[in-house]
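Researcher: Quick sanity check before group meeting.
Model: Go ahead. Protein one:
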Amino acid sequence: MKLVFMGTPQFAVPSLEKLIHSGYDIAAVVTQPDRKSGRGHKLLPPPVKVLAEQNGIPVIQFEKIKSSEGVAALKALTPDVIVTAAFGQILSKEILDIPPFGCLNVHASLLPQYRGAAPIQWAIMKGETHTGVTIMYMNEGLDTGDIISADAVAISEHMTGGELYDLLAKLGAELLIKTIKNIQRGETKRIAQDETQSSYFPPLSKALAEIDWTKPAQDIHNLVRALNPIMGGIAHMKGDTIKIWRTTVETGSAQPGWLVYADTKNGLVVGTGDGLLRIEELQTPGGKRMFTNDYLRGKKLPGSRFE
């Protein structure tokens, strides 16, 4: 079975690794163009491209794979199946119709819930205790194709978005290989998604990270851990922007945003709309991530409340 693999970030790497180690004929890897990153704006290749080149697999990069040139390049490869994992582009019907065994997608949620570009972070933000991965046949909709297989995992109370990302990337890779083998044996079924149970969430934005201290402590805790290590929760105090990286929820009450404690003996505890939030790790302007007590040993926060 000849494959074309489409993926871009680290999430897609375990899936490509599994395909390589399982001996599949990978005709090419399609990924997003190299992007500038960091203070020096150095052009960096996507993680999937790095892995492909290390294994001698041809790499194709198009700003829009559904362009006439992109479609022609895919048709020339004559793949039996196209596999996508966090590719970042929508495939046209012309592309979907190329492989006789269809286009498969590794999606990081239990579809039809949490369709969209950031299912991992949204599941944590919404306080879910379980999520998973789904292998689906792609269609022209956004994560709306028939389900082939799925596997679930638990989300623990303090699990971060980064930790869940890594867990689901590995789980998705394992499920992908099992699913492809079942397709080859003709042992799979197509399960239509139940639209009455569907949910869609938008891509992440910087505005989303802004902490609203009038919300319950549990909601803020979920926001902070979901956005770790992408951007953290954002708080403001007398003009300073402080990133909050780790928190725990405590019982008690205080005015939203007011500091209940801010010393090395008691730590940093803040009032919310319901309950208290203990800040375990933070980052001040120009500084590095650090445990709150380490920060409080040398400095004091500039005010008595977060805005």
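Researcher: Fine. The other one?
Model: Protein two, sequence then structure:
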Amino acid sequence: MNIVILYEDEDLLVVNKPAGMTVNRATTTKNEITVQDWAEKHIGIQTDGVVENKKFGEEGWDPELDFYSRGGIVHRLDKETSGVLILAKNPQAFVKLQKQFHDRTVKKAYVAFAHGSIAPDEGEISVPVGRLPWDKNKFGILPGGKESKTLYKVLKVYLNTKTKEKLTLVEMYPQSGRTHQIRVHLKYINHPIFADFLYAGRKTSRDDRKVLPRVFLHAAKITFNQPTTEKLLTFEASLPDELSACLEQFTLQ
């Protein structure tokens, strides 16, 4: 899979991650090339014997160890999600970028294609998200979950002429960084993402994947401060060909 470099300086890389590529290496990724594998070679990071440690801000967190254990990767995208991803090239930049995410000063915009017609055209979804006790691979809205908020704006509405179902192209602006946040939030308002095998329902996702074999979620834009100069930087990744082709299968309303 081809990783496109959108920007590079002495402190960081911004890349356009393709769908189908796992970000961080794990015991389940032994037979695949991850973004971390690619990053370690590109940046020249040696990680033999290094294991992941505590998260940013937790007691005992070692920033240098975290930098090496993650291969400089500052944040994550799901395997099937494409789009902009930030990688640090040294521990100092890694810490400063991590702090921006922790302080929620990084601005992110995702594009999703959701089932149904979302109304109103602009809004906010604010509900606690947590890992489901009965399914470790899924997240949901739980009373004991972590607070999470996503703003959204409807871009376009389409019609599936075969099923007469409307679908919405929507831009999502997560204000927090919970795992599967956008996917869970759209499921919560009864507008699951197209081809989402975890949250759209078995039959729906199976039918969707006859049209598109991946979740229709794309990290389209990110804005943050360069860790050394503090200059405000913004990068965008256009919609991948397979997502554009998917939209062409439906009628614009």
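Researcher: One line on it for the slide.
Model: The radius of gyration is 18 Å.
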